[in-house]
C-alpha cells in the first residue's frame, strides 16, 4: 500500500537581494556603463554602487503587465519636458522586451527640506505644480504618496548635472493613465492599486480628484513626519 509524506514540503527560499542575471548582462545597460549593485525594491528597482563621487543610477524594470503603458506616459511627459512646471525626474526610457527606466538616485523629499514652515510650504508648492502640469496633459498620476515624491539635495545635484538642488520630482508612473478628458470633465474610473486606501470602500473615482485626495493625505503625512522630527531635535525632548 502506497504511503504519502504528510509533512508539507518546505517553501523555497526567495533571495530578495538577488540581482537577476538578465539585468546584470543587459546589453543596453552595459553599453551605458551601468552595472546594478543592489535592489531598492526587490524584483523591480535597483541601484548602482555608491561611490564617493559621480552619479548613482537607479534602474527600474517596468512590469510586464503595465510597462508599455508606463513607458508611453514617460514619452508623453518628455514631449513637454521644456516646461518649467514639469517635475518629472530626469530619466531615459530603454525600450526592449522588458522596458527599463534609468534615472539618477534622488532622496526622499523630506531630506531636502528643513523644519521651517516656509520650507515645507515651498515643497508643497512644487508638488502641486508638478501634479497640475500632469493634469493639464490629461494624465492622472494615480499613486501620489510620500514614496513617489523625491527631491534633489546639494550632494545629489553635485553628483548629477541633470538635477537641481531643492527641486522636487515625481516618480513611479505605473498607475498613471492619460485620459480623453481632463479635470472637471472626466468621469469616474476603477481605482488603481495605490499606497492610499480609498475612502468608504469606493472602487471608482474621478482620477484627477483621486490625485487631489491623495495629495491631501500626502501633505498631512509630510507635516506629521517633520513635526515628529522637530520634536526629537528639540533640546526639551
UniProtKB/TrEMBL annotation:
Segments forming domain Protein kinase: 1-237
Ranges annotated as spanning the membrane: none
GO MF annotations, alphabetized: ATP binding; protein kinase activity
Protein name: Protein kinase domain-containing protein
InterPro entries: Kinase-like_dom_sf, Prot_kinase_dom
Amino acid at each position: 500500500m502506497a504511503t504519502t509524506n504528510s509533512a508539507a514540503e518546505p517553501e523555497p527560499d526567495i533571495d530578495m537581494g538577488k540581482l537577476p542575471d538578465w539585468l546584470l548582462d543587459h546589453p543596453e545597460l552595459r553599453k551605458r556603463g551601468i552595472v546594478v549593485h543592489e535592489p531598492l525594491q526587490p524584483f523591480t528597482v535597483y541601484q548602482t554602487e555608491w561611490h564617493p563621487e559621480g552619479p548613482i543610477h537607479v534602474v527600474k524594470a517596468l512590469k510586464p503587465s503595465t510597462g508599455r503603458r508606463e513607458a508611453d506616459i514617460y514619452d508623453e511627459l518628455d514631449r513637454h519636458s521644456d516646461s518649467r512646471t514639469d517635475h518629472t525626474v530626469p530619466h531615459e526610457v530603454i525600450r526592449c522586451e522588458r522596458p527599463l527606466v534609468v534615472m539618477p538616485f534622488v532622496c526622499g523629499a523630506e531630506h531636502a527640506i528643513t523644519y521651517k514652515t516656509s520650507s515645507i510650504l515651498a515643497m508643497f508648492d512644487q508638488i502641486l505644480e508638478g501634479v497640475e502640469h500632469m493634469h493639464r496633459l490629461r494624465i492622472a498620476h494615480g499613486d501620489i504618496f510620500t514614496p513617489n515624491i523625491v527631491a534633489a539635495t546639494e550632494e545629489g545635484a553635485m553628483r548629477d548635472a541633470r538635477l537641481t538642488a531643492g527641486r522636487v520630482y515625481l516618480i513611479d508612473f505605473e498607475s498613471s493613465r492619460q485620459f480623453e478628458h481632463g479635470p472637471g470633465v472626466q468621469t469616474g474610473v476603477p481605482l488603481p492599486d495605490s499606497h492610499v486606501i480609498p475612502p468608504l470602500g469606493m472602487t471608482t473615482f474621478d482620477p484627477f480628484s483621486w490625485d487631489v485626495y491623495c495629495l491631501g493625505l500626502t501633505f498631512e503625512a509630510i507635516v506629521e513626519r517633520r513635526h515628529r522630527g522637530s520634536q526629537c531635535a528639540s533640546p526639551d525632548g
